[in-house]
Specification:
29% strand, 13-stranded mixed beta sheet, Aminopeptidase, 36% helix, 2 domains
């Protein structure tokens, strides 16, 4: 069956088929909070200078089978000014699935020439993609059909933990010792964990408390957290929207009425994404992160969550505390497609030379 493609320039009600998009999400094997329309709309309202939003959708009869909200912008990569296409939400979206209905690989394949015509670019890059059969087949076809160069790279393995009845007891091994030490040190100063389930009316107060912690943490010092100067407006609006849908959870460590450490999570289909955490440097020795992670697990037992998920970890040398208990790991992939335009040829060639040089250096070491 032939798909009907169309472009939209925003995601707002009245201009975009919101109900059909939400129905499409429910037909996907899995999707994340960062695929939610509430999150995407907040990101779209806070585009950076030079970015434009273009949403490609495809219909089969009255059923939406594909939706790709894309950013078109100019970036400097390796010193070269390039036209780049990305998925809306970058870099704040920890993990997404491409919104293409299972079994509609051909529709995704047919989307690439339309993107190339409407959004001329040197590089099309999709980060933090969760593998799925439809997207894997379609994106592989993108690479093989007309890209000068392309790559599908594993960029991180995210630990996840299956919540189970045995979590009523203390963990085994070294994790038990570290958790007991964190509890003892926190109790010694009178610090205690507290759960927060914000809604539209209480989210701003929670944001103020956790933002204050991030700003004096190492993340604030380096201006790299979710509340950094570049991200604060989009992040706060997106979290308010998710809180209004009862998808935000937080665990705070409080001392004398003050929040000294927090973990912020997003809840989707029984899976708690551990999205952000920070602590005040003066309380670094407490081990608050491990204490609050245990509180996540106990909260999951109380409310019937199935998974605690690290959401995203560093590409290498990650020390996320969930690794001490993890049940498995989830792949994040990065897809890069260099076009046959002059910029794509130049950057694709330069990138290939750099990869060869890097492999040579590693072998030499």
């Amino acid at each position: 069956m032939t798909a009907r493609f169309a472009w939209h320039d925003d995601l707002e009600a009245g201009a975009f088929p919101a109900a059909a998009y939400n129905e499409l999400l429910l037909r996907l094997p899995t999707f994340t909070p960062f695929n939610r329309l509430s999150w995407l709309r907040a990101m779209a309202r806070h585009l950076r200078p030079g970015q434009t939003l273009h949403v490609l959708i495809a219909w089969q009869d009255a059923r939406l089978v594909l939706c790709l909200p894309l950013l078109h912008c100019r970036e400097r990569q390796a010193g070269l000014p390039l036209r780049v296409v990305r998925h809306l939400g970058y870099p704040l979206a920890d993990r997404i699935v491409l919104a293409v209905e299972p079994g509609q690989e051909a529709v995704l394949m047919d989307a690439l020439p339309r993107i190339r015509r409407a959004l001329p670019h040197a590089l099309l890059q999709l980060d933090e993609i969760l593998p799925a059969p439809a997207s894997n087949a379609g994106l592989t076809a993108w690479g093989r059909r007309g890209s000068f160069r392309w790559e599908n790279r594993l960029i991180c393995l995210v630990p996840e933990y299956r919540v189970c009845a045995k979590d009523r007891d203390e963990p085994a091994g070294d994790a038990r010792y570290k958790l007991r030490r964190a509890r003892k040190r926190s109790a010694a100063i009178g610090a205690a964990p507290r759960r927060a389930r914000p809604d539209a009316d209480t989210m701003d107060a929670l944001l103020a408390r956790i933002c204050a912690v991030e700003r004096i943490s190492w993340k604030g010092a380096q201006d790299v957290g979710i509340f950094s100067s570049d991200n604060v407006a989009a992040t706060t609006e997106a979290l308010r929207a998710l809180a209004a849908e009862d998808r935000v959870r937080a665990v705070l460590l409080e001392h004398e009425g003050r929040c000294i450490s927090y973990r912020l999570g997003l809840l989707e289909q029984g899976r708690l994404y551990d999205y952000s955490l920070a602590f005040m440097p003066a309380y670094a020795a407490l081990g608050s992160g491990r204490l609050l992670l245990d509180e996540w697990i106990r909260w999951g037992l109380d409310e019937g969550w199935q998974w605690i998920d690290a959401s995203r970890v560093r590409r290498s040398h990650s020390r996320h505390q969930l690794r001490e208990r993890m049940s498995g790991q989830i792949e994040h992939r990065r897809w890069r497609f260099y076009s046959c335009r002059p910029g794509g040829l130049a950057f694709g060639l330069a990138y290939g030379v750099w990869q060869l040089w890097r492999r040579h250096v590693r072998r030499s070491d």
